[in-house]
Amino acid sequence: MTKTWYGKQLQIGVLGGGQLGRMLIQAANSLDIQLHMLDPDPDAPCAQIAYSFQVGSLTDYQTVMNFGQNKDLLTVEIENVNTEALKALEQQGVKVFPQPHILELIRDKGLQKQFYIDHKIPTAPFVFYKTPQDDLPFEFPVVHKLRTGGYDGKGVQIIQHLSELQSSFQEPSIIEACIPFEKELSVIVARNQDRQTNCFPLVECEFNPEANLVEFLFSPAAVSPEIEKQAQAIAIDIIEKLDMVGLLAVEFFLTKEGELLVNEIAPRPHNSGHHTIEIARCSQFEQHLRAILNLPLANTELHSAGAMLNLIGEKGHTGSVYYEGLKEILKLPGVHPHLYGKSQTKPFRKMGHVTISAAHMQEVRRLAQIVKETIRVVSK
Fold this sequence. Notes:
3 domains, 10 helices, alpha+beta, five-stranded parallel β-sheet, Rossmann fold, Dna Ligase, domain 1, 30% strand
């Protein structure tokens, strides 16, 4: 077996082969780390660039067991995986980060919310919900969330009247109080096995209301230093109380009264950290690898202001993808497109992102608006 800077060629497996895995591979290549990927889609973004790529179900016990048995370490780029297999692999000596019981807690929004309440982490009030006949302790509107299976804005509905619950989700879910907020913010924190922690600077999110997806991210966020410190302290508190190893994205609401409330967390590299590839001294993907390999965590300072624009499929376009306006945005300074290698587009599908960097946020926002108005993800 080929020796490397850490003594031997570690066998590292990743459950999931989407765009997060693709960018994780790109960071791993710089450290001469080989990643083996498992994904059910033979045309997944990682398929052509992984050291090895296996097609298989992430939720099937035996498939995950077979994939993991010859690995030294396993990690994930998606929470919906077979955690029973991961627990069994842990017992056989395979390291799994983030740990399987943490994946189980976080992928269930009900358990996740109860964790916040039990550990005095600030969050919006909620109740477990079963039927439209349940008495609700909140005034309408309320937020109805599936406990499991939701992602990228799916599995979340704003309910204006009791009658709307009749046509909302029938699966296990929660109801949250609808919080008026000034901003949606996110911070990414890393923690290694030596219990070292480090946060990236806070980012500010702007959503596309129709797609219910993040459209823009801006960092540094336009908040006070006190809010920045408080958000990072809450993120560190959460990852330490979870005793988690890896990378954790913590999403917040900043209320009109200046209070930070935790909305959701994700135990992996996250859409709200893509800008770090270009504007931070270490990307979130390199930091994730450092954390799970128990390496020293890197400096997370920003060396410029920056933004990220998600590239999503245009409405009315399904089929082979074409990036209209790509050549035009490449003429702009500080603009870096990242295309995810997905050959087929459809409305609101994440197909890539663009980062924009400049010395000052005013210039970042000017360039970001030009990029938004120029590039479109369409079908041929």
